[in-house]
Fold each of these.
Amino acid sequence: MSKNTPLHQAHLDASAKMVDFAGWDMPIHYGSQISEHHLVRSDAGMFDVSHMTVVDATGDDARAYLQNLLSNDIAKLKTQGKALYSCMLNDNGGVVDDLIVYFIHDSFYRVIINSATRDKDIAWLNRQASAYPNLSLRERDDVAMIAVQGPAARERALTIFADGQRAPVESLGRFMAVEVGEYFVGRTGYTGEDGFEILMPVDEAVSCWQGLLDAGVKPCGLGARDTLRLEAGMNLYGTDMDETTSPLISGLGWTLAMSDERNFIGKQALQAELDRGVQQQMVGLVLLDKGVLRNHLKVVTNDGEGEITSGSFSPTLGKSIALARIPAGITGEVEVEIRNKLLKADVVKIPFVKQGKSCI
Amino acid sequence: MSNVPSELKFLSSHEWVLVEGDVATVGVSDHAQELLGDLVFVELPEPESSVSAGDSVAVIESVKAASDTYAPVTGKIIEVNVELEDSPERINDDPYGDGWMYKIKMEDPDEVNDLLDADAYTESIEEDD
């Protein structure tokens, strides 16, 4: 029996093609994945992301707990409402999950983790909590979440807020969040576009969705969400990194706060990997020949083999692109093996697309 | 409910065949394009190549996945739809018209009798659902 979000009927009413995603019956598209992708790059689209897992960490120990748990340092969060992207690692430096943590106040942090990893993440969060008596962890399965993304997303989304609530949302800085009434609004996302991620009580979800529809925001499925995040060069957990890969070989070195005194789970293993020399790198690939790059295809370089971790077609560029883990130091041109043929691809810096514009 | 024209023959793997004399025009069904979603790349067979019924001769790729498609009959490829190289979305927009993939000059036109008619194909896709 699959799980349904509070917006399930709204998706069916909009003729969504539904698929199983980590046990949830979710919309993959509402007709055309590519049209939905273009809409988010040019105007605004919305995604039901209520399947994602929200956990509130509260209490006097919340800060110390998260400083031990996360490889990025929440001490960077100086302003209430500020968000931080981080991984949580195992002792070997492998990635248990990636997440966003919002600093609400000194004894209240909100953590948003992946839905596909919910069970193991909750077990991991609880296991690490035992040393912190003044910590309370609460999974918020009473909230739904809608991501509104695109250059016109903020302007359109502002119309759903009552007059007294609009100003704090309108003035929200990037990677900041604010509570307005029963809503929690973050200026964050997973598409490379501006926009909001809006959390609300489950029973508010349908009216929020309808309000956004009325504001001209079209629903978009998880298919477009995946090509948008790939163009934006954002990792997908379980595909681009997992418990066997460290952030250092997953393009996530920038999320590690290694230099200070703070210890965190996995830090020793990361330091050892740095001392030995990091052997692989995550890069972007753009296919020069015709075809489509796919997950797990072999990459042939002049210094050994690599592997595509996420490959697809980029609707914005009209070309196939991929994230790939290849030997460190490789630049220029490589080959990708597709159906026993070697096709040429360029190694590029990610992102591929930023705010609607090609970066390659 | 997807469109299954009665004048065509089908494979259960979702290829359609239009038979005119000893020439078979081949594409993929409306149901197949619906399942695949937006197509972004088509790899067509080489013109003049010989193919046997059941051979994997073309690959169609959607945003999500690559799918093999199979020759419904034996013979020689006499024409391919080169328009698909730049506009694979023609298969989504018009699977039984502009979205045709290739034409085979059949060695044995009786092979057509082994293919599914529209009713049998409709039944096979209903079973899949």
Amino acid sequence: MKNDQILDAFGALNDEAIADANACQRPKTNRWLKWGAMAACVCLLVAGGIHISRYPAQPITTPLEADDTPSIEDPPSAPASSSPENQTFIPVSALLTESNSGYFNQALEISSVPVGQYDGLYEKIHSVGSDILRESTGTLVPGTETWYRISGHDDLQYLIQKNSGSYSLWKFMCFDSDEYAYQDVLETVYKIDSAHNISEIKVHPATMDNTNAGKAIQAEIGSQTITGEDEIKAIYEILCTLTCYGENNWDKINLGSTDAAVDQGTSHEAVWSGRYLTFVTDYGNEIDGLKYTAASNMFYEYYGIAYNQLTAEQARIVHEILKIEPARGE
Amino acid sequence: MEDARIVALYWARSEAAIDATSEKYGNYCYSIAYNILANAEDADESVNDTYLAAWNSIPPQRPSVLSSFLGKITRRISIDKWRARSAEKRGGGEIILALDELSDCIPANKNVEQEVEAAELGKALDRFVMALPLMERRVFIRRYWYLDPIASICQRFGFSQSKVKVMLHRTRNSLRNYLEKEGI
């Protein structure tokens, strides 16, 4: 056998594994975060040194002498080495497949998972194979036995479910509740505690009207990426005030006229008024469910997930940042 | 454009398929070719040959992972092109280093000249690679499928050079043991 033959034999490798090795990239580290963490370590060392010098050393307990009774505060089901910081960070993009984009993103299965005080509804999505998912599992979700975070992740946007030895990927939809604060979703599911946790917001025109005229308007509106701190903070603060009414609430959402295809005289209000938002978090996740319509000054999502109507002042701020000119749709 | 749509264009015999492939996967294929050939002109030629080969093979094929399908073609064409060069013109490129490293994987009981059935070796290698822990598999594939330089693997995964080298060394030894056990 020659080494040439082995080199050639690599050509027969599994397509998914090849694509996975190409998709996986170390997340870019935030320079300030890195130096901040180092500074924090120095502070801890200094503080630790002061503490040791002020207090006499405690007797060291050997493992055999230690009390093996688990603390009541220990998470009952979490593995011992379960801290996300100690795990390899696996970007979500490495687990998704192309068919998750656009109109192919249709839920076939929905499951309920306990998330803090709520039950979170998750949709099963297309992903890489079960073997890769199995090796990408992170910490167990508290209160469950088969749901795992993605390795290195503290958020709950995507979860991996183990079911009869097979692994599948699930994406958060909403809480199973008739009314809850969207801030709870930001904090509990997406681990967004402040505007600083949002790196950028990508804004695309609404695509519900794909007539030639609708597409022309979409092209005229164009896409934009919001990176300004003040603008992100303003949007974040508005999101924190939102009340969500859960799924299947299409009757609460007024998107404006969408029948442009049959009536050339209509104003294409839905397109002029609509924007689709993607929030990119500081750990690289993309939250792409939220949409906005100036026809009723409301945020909404797939599955008819409705939110309360914004105040006139909130709507003015959102329209300015998202560059919506509601008058053009009237 | 989504992969399914690009494949549909090939099936419709639309030349737009080539444009869409070039736009989405041109850089990907070029990086594979350049790693092997270390020459911009030759790499460009390999990428163009890849488009032609894709055009000739879809249909009848309908690849499920288009990136890997195209990458495999580019890799094969580039390695063939590299072999076709005369020995003195082969020059640098990661392939020389990778080939040298891969000699670690040849089982001790095999004569260097002994031929092994390519399909059998391919299947055994696939089984071995798929059984590796995830990060080791990724590093192994980056080195011997994509023929990435060690430095770029370190940058991609945030590992030190020594970690990557040790990881690759252990994996090559494991592969040799595995091939021995498989009787290959």
Amino acid sequence: MNDPLIDYTLHLADNTLILAQRNSEWCAHGPVLEQDIAITNISLDILGQARNFYQYAAILLGDDATEDTLAFLRDNREFKNCLLVEQENGDWGKTILRQFIFSNYQYLLYEKLQHSKDEQLAAVAAKALKEVTYHLQWSSEWVIRLGDGTDESHQRMMNAIEELWPYVDELFINADYENELLADNIAVDVPSLKNKWIEKITSIFDEATLQIPQNVFAKTGGKQGVHTEKLGYILAEMQFMQRAYPNSVW
Amino acid sequence: MVDELKIEQQKIWRILETVADPEVPVLSIIDLGIVRNVEIGASGKLKITITPTYTGCPAMDVINMSIRMVLLENGFKNFEIKNVLSPAWTTEWMSEAGKQKLKAYGIAPPNPKQIVCTTDAFQEEEAIQCPHCNSYNTQLISRFGSTACKALYKCNDCMEPFDYFKCH
């Protein structure tokens, strides 16, 4: 039952579904109209990636699995997303920082994944890479704008860094299913992305007058299905309709 | 035999040309470059290959349904619509006629020279021509517009806001 390719595809799918769900909470609550549209457009792009990954996972799983059963009928411990994406939105600064941390990671990940030996994963990554470029550019600009903005916005970015940095290291630790797929050149070796990731963070933080914190205790477990309590609340809201009214359609 | 197949294929391309994009109805799915291939198998089975513009494009389900409808209306029953992601769609596939139609509709078409977004923050903006007064004195309001494929601009001369179908 434990097929590393299925686990890996679900990990990629869950990362994107949960972040898309989080970002979409901003819909109609953005600080200004244009940015409300921006964050929801980003959410839509990421949700599209999630659908592509789930559709592929459903084919691999066979039987009655569909993208919908995978999104709506799996429970907390079956989700393999990293802890970062399930963290609460907080203020605009925290949402921006989470997006910047993740888009920077995702950009480097997809740059490699588009050359994966698995053709479908490679195709999803190559297509999404163009869109992730926009997300990375947009979130970088906002980190600079807020970090190098007023005393208030600078302070809020510092708070966001303190709250989110414990979840950074998990992005760069291979799970068992990733390790098992390395030899066949299917999965990306995530520890190898870290140096370039730090380089980008450093250059943007320099402009934003922010610093990377040192010696932060890393929280991990999400990629293995052990989550913070926040995921349960997301699933409760997202899955409610299908749980209460099975097979209901829009 | 070969010629008959060709004629049949051309007929199908012309039928598909009547399918409009649901978000930008002046454009057909051919103008947009969404239809990648029309194939007629040995058994006469028709295979249409389409590709989404953006990963999360919510119009794909509608487009799929519209193709199905128009083929059935024209008497085709034995067909399959295949959705592919690779190679990834680019605005370079948009037809010249499509670009003209976009402009007439009030949406600035993608610049002829393909300049795509990079990861660099605050990169220099492209000069985009206002579709209303043709001025190049325009400014970017937001990289994300009413749909994923468009950015929001404003003309500094005629003061009108407009959508720009961004290079991708």
